[in-house]
UniProtKB/TrEMBL annotation:
Keywords in alphabetical order: Amino-acid biosynthesis, Aminotransferase, Histidine biosynthesis, Pyridoxal phosphate, Transferase
Protein name: Histidinol-phosphate aminotransferase
EC number annotated for this UniProt entry: 2.6.1.9
Classification of source organism: Bacteria, Bacillati, Actinomycetota, Actinomycetes, Kitasatosporales
Top-level taxon of origin: Bacteria
Record HAMAP family: HisC_aminotrans_2
PROSITE patterns per record: AA_TRANSFER_CLASS_2 (PS00599)
N6-(pyridoxal phosphate)lysine: residues bearing it: K232
Length: 373
């Protein structure tokens, strides 16, 4: 039998594991930052209608440039983020993971370096590896905020071609101040060779933040990119639709690496239907934000150390006893609740679910804390 290690794969992939949270069949699943609310029935019906329309033309390739969708996404950003963008400054792909991959294909690659501030979204490093880009793990303060002075030093030392700033940050929930992004951007341009460095703000959880979007920072910063997704706020993780906003020149750059017709007609039709129901979906976001705030308050009341959160999840701990955070992860699982162990020492991450799911989670935490007394 042939195993992976027998294959002539690239050396840097040898011994690596694929990304993936466990997909376990558990009553309360709060481990992948999904939106717990299924799409409303009116939207399901509208998707069926728009997809049927698209199906009539499936003998043809889809609109390669997804112009209608990019126009609608631009209108959504303009309306909700306080800064006007046009379709030529917006690009869409199959999930923001694909957006990030296209950015690294165009701006990273062999002989180039990307830097992020860890702990952060582990796919940034994995996509870097997959595109042959060297990865540098920058630091955060003890409280998981980005330390501007340390960031400036790390950027000056490594002179990265791409810098990732995740805000709100996964897995910690930490928002990054606009001033910090500006400082990182300026430092990256100063340190860079040639034409500067790309700074990617990953705002996958932007809609859940207490702070406004960082989109207005795009003004006069042609090397800044804001990445977003319909997986979280739009409750459409299964749709696979991510997008970016940037200077139109950045959109021209990703077109050099995107596969032709990468966004299927079915995907485009579904995303357009979901955008028609933006206000209803943003109503669920408001509910989730207040549930997130409740989780923070109640976890603190239960004696946990909780990181302030601007996302639809909460990092909590500290579990420094025997077995560390993983033992608590296991104990919660035994109570029927699946959370995430992201490998941050002493900490776990829980996604805000429905009020009932959050109650079940909080009961399980209290029970486990009692067992551990
Ligand atoms: N960025 C961050 C910070 C994320 O947490 C995720 C999903 N977990 C993504 C990007 C990718 O999401 P998607 O590909 O579903 O848009």
């Amino acid at each position: 039998m042939t195993v992976l290690e027998d294959l002539p794969i690239r050396d840097e992939l040898r011994g690596q594991s694929p990304y993936g949270a466990p997909q376990l069949d558990v009553p309360v699943r709060l481990n992948t930052n999904e939106n717990p609310y299924p799409l409303p029935e009116e939207l399901v019906a509208r998707i069926a209608e728009r997809v049927a329309e698209a199906a009539r033309g499936l003998n043809r390739y889809p609109d390669r440039d997804a112009v209608e969708l990019r126009t609608r996404l631009a209108a959504y950003l303009t309306r909700t983020c306080g800064y006007a963008v046009n379709a030529d400054g917006v690009w869409a792909a199959n999930g923001s993971n694909e957006v990030l991959q296209q950015l690294l294909q165009a701006f990273g690659g062999p002989g180039r370096t990307a830097l992020g501030f860890d702990p952060s979204y582990s796919m940034h490093a994995l996509i870097a590896r997959g595109t042959g880009t060297d990865w540098v793990s920058g630091s955060r303060r003890e409280d998981f905020t980005v330390d501007v002075d340390a960031a400036r030093r790390e950027i000056a030392r490594h002179r990265p071609h791409v810098v990732f700033v995740c805000s709100p940050n996964n897995p910690t929930g930490t928002a990054v101040e606009a001033d910090t992004v500006v400082a990182v951007y300026d430092a990256a341009q100063r340190a860079a060779r040639g034409k500067g460095a790309l700074v990617v703000v990953d705002e996958a959880y932007g809609e859940f933040s207490h702070h406004p979007s960082l989109l207005p920072l795009l003004r006069d910063r042609p090397n800044l990119v804001l990445s977003r997704t319909m997986s979280k706020a739009f409750g459409a993780a299964g749709l696979r639709l991510g997008y970016l906003a940037a200077d139109p020149a950045v959109v021209d750059a990703v077109q050099l690496v995107r596969l032709p017709y990468h966004l299927s007609a079915v995907t485009q039709a579904t995303a357009l239907a979901a955008l028609e129901h933006t206000d209803t979906l943003l109503g669920y976001v408001e509910r989730l934000k207040s549930e997130r705030d409740r989780l923070v308050t109640e976890l603190r009341a239960a004696g946990c150390e909780v990181t302030a959160s601007d996302a639809n999840f909460v990092q909590f701990g500290r579990f420094d006893g025997e077995g560390g955070a993983h033992a608590v992860w296991q104990a919660l699982l035994e109570h029927g609740v699946l959370v995430r162990d992201n490998g941050v020492p002493g900490r776990l991450r829980v996604t805000a679910g429905t009020p009932e799911e959050n109650d079940a989670f909080l009961d399980a935490v209290r029970a486990v804390m009692k067992e551990n007394e």
